[in-house]
Amino acid sequence: MKNIKYIFLSFIMAVSIYGCDKGFEDINENIDDPVVVPSSMMIGTIVRDAMNEMYSTFNGSEIGETWSQHASLIQYNDPDRYKPRVTSMDAMWNIFYRTASNANQMYELAVAEGNETNQGVALVLKAYCFHVITDLYGACPYTEALKGPSEGNFTPAYDDQEVVYAGILDLLNQSMSLLSSGNGEINGDMDIMYAGDASKWLKFAYSLKFRALMRISGVQDVSTELQAVYNSGHLFASNSDEAKLVYLSASPEANPLYESIVAGARGEHKLSETFINALVASNDPRLPVMAQEAANGGYVGKPNGYEESPLAGFGYDDVSPIGANYLLPTAPGYFMSYSELLFLIAEAAKKGYISGGDATAQSYYEAGILNSLTENGVAGEYASFMVPASGVVYNSTDALELIGTQKWIVLFCQGFEAWTEYRRTGFPELTPAAQAYLDEIPSRLKYESTEVSVNGPNYRAVLERQGADELTTKIWWMGN
To answer: I need a labelling partner for 221 at 20 to 30 A (CA). Which of 30, 73, 120, 348 fits?
Structure first.
């Protein structure tokens, strides 16, 4: 947790009771008050807080989905034009530091319990939080973060992203050892992601490590580590392994996209012309699942950007809404999907980071497409989709573009991850939004708005190293 923003204070009120009743305190002790919170009890809060922010329409949708050109906003479209809400950028910073702090607290509780399994779960979740923070902002407090209550450090220094990623990988390595120990167990009733299955948390740790290594593979040689993770036998092996929160059918436990777009009637969230055109051009069978027909008929996307709001010809009834299945209250929120992993492995094989070359790359590429079609209920159309006319058949020349584009499609409604992978791979090739405030797609978010005043010396020091606190400043793994 960002120490400056969230300081949890415990107040102890001592009440002296004077009287002659022997044993009064014992008689009036509340046996229902827990002395110590069980570490498993914190899993739900951490998981839900993280996913609620990633899937918030003000965050993942208005920023990630529009910048990756899955979506476009009919009205109130400043974020689509690269002017995000300051409150959204602040919220991602504050809530993910708070969530990291909660994961840290869970770890300490699990240590006190001697529960190594729950220690491992906590470290996976902590690693995920810092993975999100550094991918969105670049350099960030890491080694001195989360130490306000324990050490009184409320102005932590910023670590360069290379240091943060080394820390993330170390957290994941520790989690793997702890989750493999068999010492301790997870309360399945409190584990809202894996129902207490430590083997699936272990797979999440390995799969997240594969993603993290791929994220930095353009600026650091990580082929040995990637091969080891690939050979481990602990990566996701099916959709049942993937890390996701399945939301509930009723508010306030429903998927945030449903809460905002359907229950909250936020109709300005529609699909991008870029996304619709890509699916139409390849005759993609996922089109009627990922999109609904516009009220005025047909599958129509809105061009990203434009000052005029609504843009003539692209009003609320003219543009396709997000597919109904993706707006269900029970639609899952993904930390990481199996389909994403399959495409990451395909890319790693094509680039020679792991063994197998084009044959392995093609195998995983095709498996990724089939798995995505299966998830969307159109697996029966796989054979008719994988034909030369669709433009999606694997070939060694265009392999990286094919892999990147198909990964972009499977990351639909996972806005921040889609934008992040676009920033890393450059695929698909996107044209910046029209009439935007910037002439390029943003490379990062701006730091939390009070950092300049409450953590000024450290804030200014990081700008000297990383560059200006602007949306266009490239972060380390982008080759800055």
So the answer is: 120
